[in-house]
Write a structure and sequence with these properties.
The protein is α+β, with helices and mostly antiparallel strands. It contains 19 helices and twelve strands. The strands form two sheets. The protein has a six-stranded mixed beta sheet with strand order 1-2-6-3-5-4, with helices on both faces. GO terms for molecular function: metal ion binding; metallopeptidase activity.
Length: 483
Amino acid sequence: MNNLWRWSLPLNKYLLFGLTALLSNQSHGHELAQMAAPLYSLEQTISYRELDNGLQLRLLPIPSSRSVSIATQFSIGSRDEIVGQTGYAHLFEHMLFKGSENAPGDSYAQTMSALSGQFNASTFFDFTNYYLTLPSEALELALWLEADRFIRPNLTPETVKNQQATVLEEMATTIDNQAYVRDAMEFLLTQAKGTPYGHSVIGSKEDVSKATVKQLTLFHQHHYRPDAAQISIVGGYTQETNSWIDSAFGQWQPLSQPPEKTAADSQAAIKLENRYVHGEIIDDRGPWPALLLAWHTVGQQDKDAEAVTLLEAYLFQNRASLIKQSGLTDPEQLLTYSIPLSMELMGVSNLVVVPRARASLDQLTKNVQQMISNIAKQGIDSASLEQLKANWLNQSLRRLDQPSRLARHLSATQARDKLVPLTGPWERINAVTNEQIQAVANTYFNQGYVRLDLLPPWYIRWTKALLEFLPESVSNSLEESVL
């Protein structure tokens, strides 16, 4: 499958242009404008369509490319699941690779493999997406196969049972068999109890195990609708592509009656109060203590969303972040890790810190609190803000050189960016001021937080406690032996 990426793509020039501008001088507004130019230029080449059934389409040509990427995103995720059916969105994602009316069994995977195609899917709280990359000459067949499985999946007791076992194995491997993960996940989800985001994407063992063909069929009818989907095509495609799309997807009918509304359909932003919550979990499989901190932030369409994004990057995300810089000299942490969760209706910023032997979890907490307090009081300097924007922009430019990522990005377009999927998000990022950074630091990060201590068995905790009181030179040498 990797041979697809050996084919040359003309978008390299966009990335080179952006990187050159970044290296020359990121601190000036006109340089950011020069960096952003490829986004505006490329956006002008996108074709937009909406079929009569509500299906949204975006086509971006790369004329010299010999491959094409297709991405389809449905507005269905775990937040739409009802009580007793947690994990259905993710389970159904698996089912769509296991047979449709005209491509039964493993025909889809076998066909894609024969074409050297690269395909996958993912499920999140708000969406499920499907994506593939394959030779351009196979595009008509690919569109027909995509339509067949989206519109006419073949659900049988055998395939349901098989995929239930696959999902339960995935649950065991990625969650239950990993130190701290299950208990930490449940602790954090409890903080969102009463919201559509109060259960995990993968669902519960009990609900997944009890899923039936009838329930999954109803799930498909309710959620897999053309008016809930966005399809993007990026790469080398021909003039016949639109007629192939019409043939494959044009007869797909939306529901005759609107689906019954769920709690997640209200589209009302969820803003949870940030208050101090402290918990701990002890896991005998834990190799070393760790600290997990979390803050409730805002949904993707909130006026503060972009400022929160930049602040998260400044605090925790990139190599130049405050938490990373604090570990360059005389570090008190061995490792830091952060993947903020940005959902449609709410957000969660998080940080995991693994301490050195001489540092306590209390001290690490104080260090992070002090960083946030300083920003809440003083904000950040203009040069740092410009650098944050340049970093964000550079990540967007990198996407231009990766058709599969670009297709997925286009299929995840928010309604407000319907005709500006590349530049709309950038313009909101570029409009963020230091005053906004300071305000969100105070509002969402400086008013309370969730702290969870991840603790190993007693003998490791005892050893670490002893090392905290020994001279630094001694603790450092013993730390290596213990770890």
